[in-house]
Amino acid sequence: MKNRAIAVVASCLLACTTTVCANDLLVSSRFSDNVLRYDGVTGQSKGVFASGNGLDNPNGIAIGPDGNLYVGLGDVGRVMVFDGRTGAFLRDFVTPATSGGLAGCRAIAFLPGGDLLVTSGATSQILRYEATTGAAKGVFASGDGMSGPVGLTVGPDGTVYVGAALSNAVYVYDRNGALLRILQSPAGQSNATGVLLDRRGQLLVAESVTNTVQRLDPVTGAATVFASGGGLAVPIGLTFLPGGDLLVGSFNNDKVVRYDGTTGAPEGDFIVGGAGGLDGTHNFAFLPEAGSAINVGHGGAWYDPATSGQGVLVEVIPGSRTLSAYWFTHAALASGEDTRVQRWFVGLGPYAGSTGAMKVYLARGGVFDAPPVLAAQEVGSATLQFDNCSRAVLEYTLPAGAIRGGDVVVGAPLVAGRIELQRIAPATLCTQLAGNP
Question: Is the preceding omega at residue 372 within 30 degrees of 0, hence cis?
């Protein structure tokens, strides 16, 4: 184990000169009223990241599309925002005065497009808030026997998974809050809490009474025990390290246990009990990358050599910290009214750190060099993350009709994908401005 740890650190020191190996890990420490910071490779404490300004009983935490830390409080209807680099308090996102009825957060997660979902434990609801203002957008999900929602995660296609402890099941919803199915905890297991999708699309579910992590088929609910042992005492939060190992927060003994991400075998404590003042381990978030912060020099033409002839034009607007991307591509299949034509998608949204979170729009019906003025239809979402000044990754979620050239139908199947991009022109300006976003 010791030799493996040395090898991991050594490989990270080599690999992280161009890309981030493991950003620092944030952990909500419920009973010390802090969000704590730990080294993402060694698990060593790096002190308090966020505290004060009324931060009390923090439960759900997540990095938002703007790169800042969002923290949901467990006893009141409040979600706070802290600077994603310094931990300084910025503002309230949701307050007890905000409509919607939030009564104690257990977990938070962002939908594609940026809206925030919050589990309201006392009312057994999932509430939705607007991406930029925090305005209430109503109840996302409730009823169907869901009681005591604790865990919350959103899949790459927008599917939402809720671990409900008191009803001992996982509730699965589409991106609009329609119930898709209910996955009961396996026989002998009790109190589903944290939920997380693994890299194969299987669902991991923490069971807080039997102190195990189950692996469930997200459609059928077929389950096996994935991880156990290691001294787990009321597991709640789940996350993966960049290398693939699983971290599980152990609430009752104030530690974080590490498991092999493939076999589930325990590998010891990643954060030892009480380290750094940890008291009531709840949820996790990784700090955003700081080394490749977006600047105006990232603007320009980007493409994938494997599909040369199409690509993305990027524009960075630093005054409003907005990123726009004009994606010139082609219909995926010869079908629909726009058979075999070019497709022009536009992405627009906020950026922070190295990442922009964009809503994707599509306009059709234009005429060459002539009216009318086109109305753009929102069709999906995308993120654009810059590894450095010369490489980036575009991840998208779009309706199948939009990429085929046909109609965009509400509720139609969604397609998720990933494109690795390279800059066409030299990165001179971006390199000069690095560190001065």
Answer: yes
pLDDT digits (tens, 9 = 90+) for 338-389: 556 777 899 999 998 888 999 999 887 788 888 888 888 888 899 998 877 8
Tell me the residue range of the domain where 203 lies.
Answer: 23-286
- C-alpha span between 333 and 61 (Å, rounded): 41
Instruction: Tell me whether residue 13 is in a domain.
Output: no
Q: What is the CATH number of the domain that holds 332?
A: 2.40.128
- Contact status, residue 65 vs residue 114, Cβ threshold 8 Å: yes
Q: Taking the complete model, does pTM exceed 0.90, yes or no?
A: no
Q: Return the closest-CA partner of residue 66 out of 288, 286, 239.
A: 288
Residue 5 inside a domain? The answer is: no
Burial string for 317-350 (b: 16+ CB within 10 Å, else e) reads: eeeebebbbebebebeeeeeebeeeebebbbbbb
pLDDT tens-digit readout, 286-305: 987 654 689 999 999 999 98
- Do 370 and 328 sit in the same domain of this protein? yes
**End-of-domain residue from the set 263, 286, 309:** 286
d(CA 416, CA 411): 15
Element holding 433 (H helix, E strand): helix 428-433
229-259 tens-digit pLDDT:
999 999 999 999 988 999 999 999 999 999 9
Q: Cα separation of 175 and 359, whole Å?
A: 14
Q: What are the distances in angstroms from CA 250 to CA 284, 358, 382, 421? A: 12, 35, 34, 39
Q: Cα torsion at 177, 181, 187, 191 (round to 10°)?
A: 0
Q: Which of 233, 258, 286 is the last residue of a domain?
A: 286
Q: How many CB atoms lie under 10 A from the CB of residue 129?
A: 24
Helix (H) / strand (E) element for 14: namely helix 2-15
